[in-house]
Amino acid sequence: MQSLIWDDAAQRLLSKEIIKRTRRLSLKEARELEQQLVQESRLIGSAIYTKMFQASKRKPKEKIELLLGQLGAQMENGTLQLTGPYQIDPNMPPHSEFLSRLAKTIQQAYEGKILDDPRVHQLRMYLDRQNITYVRSRFGTKISDEVALAAYARTSKKQGGLGGEKMIAERARFHNKYKSSYQSGNENRKRLTPDFHSEFILDDHGQFVSQWNVLEFDDAGKLITDINYYKKRFATYSEWHYFQQQILNGESFNYADRNDIVHRRLDSLPPSQLDHPLRKEIAKEWKNPKNKTEYHWKRVDSQKDDYSQRNKRKQRVWGIAILALVLAVIKCKK
């Protein structure tokens, strides 16, 4: 139980928050609100949990251990299972302050190192599940997931959206794995929240590509990762092919802030070693398309929409580089 207990700084913050919000209420109302705040403090990503996480004086790795302990994170046969007693807050949006703080904490804990803890690596898939569910449940339509994603981007922040802030349109080469020969023309696309952390993959019909479209839980609430179970559930060739695509080409939460060396250490390198066995087994038969010769990113990822844009930071860096090159050429001609 020790791993579930907050330090004094975090507990003091909760006490102060309770006092501040209940001091003008009747005794009955105060007790009800106190109970509500205590319950909310057990929801990972809620407003009060985020404040406590920030207030805690624990070291970055200790904070991560605390979080994992609260979620009841356990590795079983190479797969992360979350057994509680804390849960991920169903109202936590993909752009939440908590997700940003968690990413920063992991960056600090693994500064200069490759992420090597399978629990931390696989935690991201449960964050993905929360993000997909959030967009679908709050903004879902009968048309497509992309319509819901666009609505999420346009909706005000008070109502749980991005408030009109553009999502990032990124290259999705590693989310277009193929088995035998690469077929261009129906590539998946990638969209990320403006902070780069939460990721969504869209197929050519505007539907989310995600392992959460096919993975299931057993009666005890444990994630099923037995490959033979799914081979029976997806019995035909086309069904099994679809299943594998969803497992391999779906979204993956990023602990880094941008596509750089930190992204490589925390997000790109760990999967080959730390993915759950089901994904590892399936990945053996699939390949990534070769850049430019098979995957023509300029044609695929330059499709314009009204809710996303290419990364402005990248555009600015390239602009500066091109300007410097032009000035150098002019100087040489003189």
Descriptors for this entry?
8 strands, 48% helix, single chain, alpha/beta, two-stranded parallel sheet
Verbal overview:
- With 334 residues, the chain is of the alpha/beta class.
- It has one domain.
- Helix content is 48%, strand content 8%.
- The chain has a 4-stranded mixed sheet with strand order 7-6-5-8. Strands 1-4 form a two-stranded parallel ribbon. A two-stranded antiparallel sheet has the order 2-3.
- Helix 4 packs across helix 5 (97-109) and helix 6 packs across helix 7.
Topology of helices and strands:
Blueprint: H1 8-22, H2 27-40, E1 43-44, H3 47-55, H4 60-71, E2 73-76, E3 79-82, E4 87-88, H5 97-109, H6 118-139, H7 145-154, E5 167-170, E6 189-192, E7 199-202, H8 227-233, H9 237-249, H10 261-268, H11 271-274, H12 277-283, H13 297-301, E8 308-310, H14 312-333
Parallel strand pairs: 1-4, 5-8
Antiparallel strand pairs: 2-3, 5-6, 6-7
How many angstroms separate the termini? 74 Å
Report the sheet with the most strands, covering strand number, pairing sense and barrel closure: 4 strands, mixed
Runs in which pLDDT lies below 50 for 5 or more consecutive residues are 315-324
What's the overall average pLDDT, rounded?
Answer: 92
What coarse outline follows from CA principal-axis ratios?
globular
- Which structural category do the helix and sheet elements fall into? alpha/beta
Number of separate domains? 1
Oligomeric state of shown chains: single chain
Would you list the SSEs in sequence order as H and E?
A: HHEHHEEEHHHEEEHHHHHHEH
Beta content: 5-15%
